[in-house]
Amino acid sequence: MRRNTPIVLLSVGHACVDVYQGAVAALVPFFVAERAYTYAVASGVVLAASLLSSVAQPVFGALTDRRAVPWLLPVSTLLGGVGIALSGLSGSYALTLVFVAISGIGVAAYHPESARVARIATRGSHRGMGWFATGGNIGFALAPLLVTSVVATGGLRRTPLLALPALAGAAMCLPVVRALQRKRADGPGTTPAKGGDDTASFVKLSLAVAFRSITLVGLSTFISLYARQRLGGSTAAGTAALSVLYLGGAVGSLLGGFLAGRWDRVTVSRWSYLLTAASVAGVVWVPGPAIYLFVALTSVGLYVPFSLQVTLGQDYLPSRVGTAGGITLGLTVSIGGLATPAIGGLADATSLQTALTPLVLMPVLSWLLFRTLPEPRCPMPGLTARSENRAAP
């Protein structure tokens, strides 16, 4: 296998998995229209996908720190797809919650192991991890287009067609697993990373990522409905706003990897959160079609630090890179879904604009936390012989 092939396959596989994170928010307007859900009830669907995922990701991260679980990559990809595929088949709200929760568990199982394998495949390159993160962001971006093309013409009963990306993603995992197995057989792994864990910095980083998550999940859940309100009620206007939010993430992830090659990760992340705070204010308060510009700027600002935060977490916890990946790439990303019922309830009681206003504060809190973080100096932590062996079967 050529040198760059594993990260290409992992990036495409990551896109196939993160389609199902984006699909939950993309399905919300259809649940509202077809099943007459209120904002609060619809946000409960996002909560169901996030809740078990939030709890499960650190568990899967700890598991990958203890033993090799390469089979999690294809299995979790399929599980994520099956849950979303079944979510539209029953009119029962309880069953809908169960199915999206199953998808959330699949997404939770995928990310810690994939983050470890991607770090090995990229040899610690920030740009390589940026490409891996970009794959996930492209999956997010494609989700509303995919969901709309499938569901808008035939209703929620056509959601089984949404399982197709999972089949493709699972197929992408298998060559990478085999390549890592051969690499392990050919010779020893890299030199173990030195230095202890910086738990205090990791906790601050996790809080910063959690505030980012509240902003992103809050916007991704309601930006389609909000854009429709602001721009005349068109379904296309809402889908376009959600697509811009996710497509800007692909640009932001690549830009983050490039900027981290010129400045350190902490500095790049800190400035990106300042940009994000101003951009979210524009989304909430600037009227008219300018909302698309501010959605794009918000997306870039939120995603510039995305892959950088994953490697920062692994560098702060070099002895537990699976746990670090499970938290920074998983738990703190999913935790934003826990705040969506509060946003939905406030929107039902007041208005969507009022409910989205507190999101302006979240990037400011992330910025304040990043002002207290050091840039780790240990090169390529987590790329130890033991880590490489665990990533291989």
UniProtKB/TrEMBL annotation:
<dbReference type="InterPro" id="IPR036259">
    <property type="entry name" value="MFS_trans_sf"/>
</dbReference>
<feature type="domain" description="Major facilitator superfamily (MFS) profile">
    <location>
        <begin position="6"/>
        <end position="377"/>
    </location>
</feature>
<keyword id="KW-0812">Transmembrane</keyword>
<feature type="transmembrane region" description="Helical">
    <location>
        <begin position="202"/>
        <end position="227"/>
    </location>
</feature>
<dbReference type="InterPro" id="IPR011701">
    <property type="entry name" value="MFS"/>
</dbReference>
<feature type="transmembrane region" description="Helical">
    <location>
        <begin position="68"/>
        <end position="86"/>
    </location>
</feature>
<keyword id="KW-0472">Membrane</keyword>
<feature type="transmembrane region" description="Helical">
    <location>
        <begin position="324"/>
        <end position="346"/>
    </location>
</feature>
<dbReference type="InterPro" id="IPR020846">
    <property type="entry name" value="MFS_dom"/>
</dbReference>
<keyword id="KW-1133">Transmembrane helix</keyword>
<protein>
    <submittedName>
        <fullName>MFS transporter</fullName>
    </submittedName>
</protein>
<feature type="transmembrane region" description="Helical">
    <location>
        <begin position="239"/>
        <end position="261"/>
    </location>
</feature>
<dbReference type="Pfam" id="PF07690">
    <property type="entry name" value="MFS_1"/>
</dbReference>
<feature type="transmembrane region" description="Helical">
    <location>
        <begin position="162"/>
        <end position="181"/>
    </location>
</feature>
<feature type="transmembrane region" description="Helical">
    <location>
        <begin position="36"/>
        <end position="56"/>
    </location>
</feature>
<feature type="transmembrane region" description="Helical">
    <location>
        <begin position="131"/>
        <end position="156"/>
    </location>
</feature>
<feature type="transmembrane region" description="Helical">
    <location>
        <begin position="291"/>
        <end position="312"/>
    </location>
</feature>
<feature type="transmembrane region" description="Helical">
    <location>
        <begin position="92"/>
        <end position="110"/>
    </location>
</feature>
